[in-house]
Amino acid sequence: MATQSVLETFVDHCGRAPDKTGVHFEGEDYSYARLLALARQAAGALAAHGVEAGDRVALFLGNSVDFLAAYLGIHLAGGIVVPVNTLYRQVELRHILSDSGAAVCVTDAALRPSLDALRGDLKELRHILEAPLLSEQPASPLRLPDGDEIALIGYTSGTTGRSKGAMLRHRNVLANIASVCQAWRWTDRDHLLLTLPLFHVHGLLVGFHGTLFAGAGCELHRAFSAATVFDRLNSGAFSMFFGVPTMYVRLLDEQRRRNLTPPPLRLYVSGSAALSQDTFAAFEAQFGQRILERYGMTETVMNLTNPYDGERRPGAVGQPFPGQEAHIVDVATRAPLGSERDGEIEVRGGHVFAGYWQRPDATTEAFTSDGWFKTGDLGRVSAEGYFSINGRASELIITGGYNVYPREIEDVIARFPGVREVAVIGLPDAEFGEQVAAAIAADPGTSPDEVIAFCREQLAAFKKPKRIVLVDALPRNAMQKVQKHLVRTLFET
Q1: What DSSP string runs through 179-236?
Q2: How far is CA 464 from CA 358, 437, 448, in A?
Q3: Pairing relation of β-strands 319-320 and 325-329?
Q4: Cβ proximity of 347 and 320 under 8 Å
Q5: Which residues are registered as beta bridge partners of 419?
């Protein structure tokens, strides 16, 4: 019988190499066998608190072995994991816990007060459990999930408004990580430095899942610190590091400060936000390695990747992973487009989610009749088959009948001296329908008029910003994605 879940591959590795270190955390090694024992204890504790197959169990917990044990334990107990961003508070917590109908939430003493304050609003939440308590119960029987069972409900990052819960089956996440490991040559000899938050699919369903699927090892940190990560990279103990663009910018600053280059890794990967071509080039110059940029999302985990062997093209997110499909379609007609044409990216394959939790309307809208998932991301594909991302379809600006892609303008403004970061949006315009507007974080003395003049030299006249607002920093979520719906509020004052 074919493998049904990542959990099944983990248990298989436990049988074949029980003493191998799967996770190193805060000075302590956790073998595969020890991780499984902790997971079975967590499953026993959850079962003792009434968790049954199909129950949603929220994980409101920071990076730790407690998180990993609870995550695996929820699956052993037949539950559905609902990861929750640890930065969330009243409004976000209330939405996710009520929308998912979570029966149990696993947290810790530091985060618990935020949950206690909501107990009166969450009628379906039966128990709040603190993670260390999960190890106080006898181990549960070893029950492995079926591939068609829902493994996880991941709430979309909410960069444009209220988040939806994306249901991923065990077979979806298994198919995805199998493709990732194949594409990136991930094997049991690899050692990953993992500092990404586990509440996000990048850290959990790629970093941790890949470790388990490959039978490899990882060193888990509670959070990213440029100084600490640089020290660990310099140790030569790792073969892989996954990060978001902000992490790479800070590592570049750390390298300049120390004037020291760590030994090469087998693979540096960037995702969750666009990696600028300047950062790509600077990292190659200072670290001597070309970052592999990829593209994914909550509903599908990983979709596209630059090649492990071959050209890693700056500004591009590569090609479909093995066993997956992607193409570009016209936003209005949904007709497939050829190379070098702007449109929306659609993907198809075993990695694509089962639909939105309790949102059949949104699920129907998200898929075509022949099974393509409408990602909502705008992009194009080159003649050589490399995809690039221009922004969200919902962010497309139509001014005077012309389509304007925010990413193109953002790339131009980012080259203006003194500009640290920029976000472009469309604002209502009585004459043209929409006008281009840019929020810019820049050095003191930066002139909006000079930025506009610079854009006029580089771009067609209809693409230049009509309004610019200078800010200290752009609003971002925990994965450093710019929250465009909050950028819009910057122009309301």
Answers
A1: HHHHHHT--TT-EEEE-S-TTSHIIIIIIIHHHHHHT-EEEE-SS--HHHHHHHHHTT
A2: 42, 8, 12
A3: unpaired
A4: yes
A5: 442
Between CA 56 and CA 121 the distance in angstroms is 17
How far is the C-alpha of 242 from the C-alpha of 265, rounded, in Å?
A: 11
Q: What is the pTM of this model?
A: 0.86
Residues in the chain where the model's pLDDT stays below 50: 159-160
* pLDDT for position 282: 95
Tell me, what's the pLDDT at 160?
46
The first and second tokens of residue 44, run together, are 């026993």
Q: Which two tokens stand for residue 171?
A: 């077979």
For residue 136, what pLDDT is reported?
Answer: 66
What would the pLDDT profile of 230-283 be if each residue is shown by its tens digit? 999 999 999 999 998 889 989 999 999 999 999 999 999 999 878 888 899 999
Cα–Cα distance measured from residue 441 to residue 468, given in angstroms and rounded to the nearest whole number: 10
- List the 467-471 sheet strands across, edge first: 419-429, 433-442, 467-471
C-alpha 89/C-alpha 389 separation (Å) is 31
Alpha carbons 486 and 476: distance in angstroms, whole number: 9
- Nearest Cα neighbor of 422 from 440, 445, 396, 448 is 440
Contact 276, 294 (CB under 8 A): no
Res 159: pLDDT: 46
> How far apart, in whole angstroms, are the C-alpha atoms of residue 232 and residue 421?
28
| Residues pairing with 296 in the sheet | 302
**286 touches 309 (CB < 8 A):** no
Tally of CB atoms within 10 A around 269: 21
Amino acid letter, 207: G
In degrees and rounded to multiples of 5, residue 282 shows phi and psi of -65, -40
The three-state secondary structure class of 360 is: helix
Q: Report the distance separating Cα 17 and Cα 72, nearest Å.
A: 18
pLDDT at 158: 54
Reduced to 3 states (helix: H, G, I; strand: E, B; else coil), residue 328 is strand
Q: Quick check: 60 and 89 in contact, CB under 8 A?
A: no
Site of tokens 């670290």: 287
Q: How far apart are CA 146 and CA 192, in angstroms?
A: 28
- Report d(CA 45, CA 104) in Å as an integer: 11
How far apart (Å, rounded) are the C-alpha atoms in residues 350 and 354? 10
CA distance 180 to 186: 8
Distance CA 231, CA 229 (A): 5
**Cα–Cα dist 438/8, whole Å:** 49
Q: Can you give the pLDDT at residue 444? A: 92
Coil/strand/helix, residue 349? coil
- Are 440 and 469 in contact by the 8 Å Cβ rule? The answer is yes
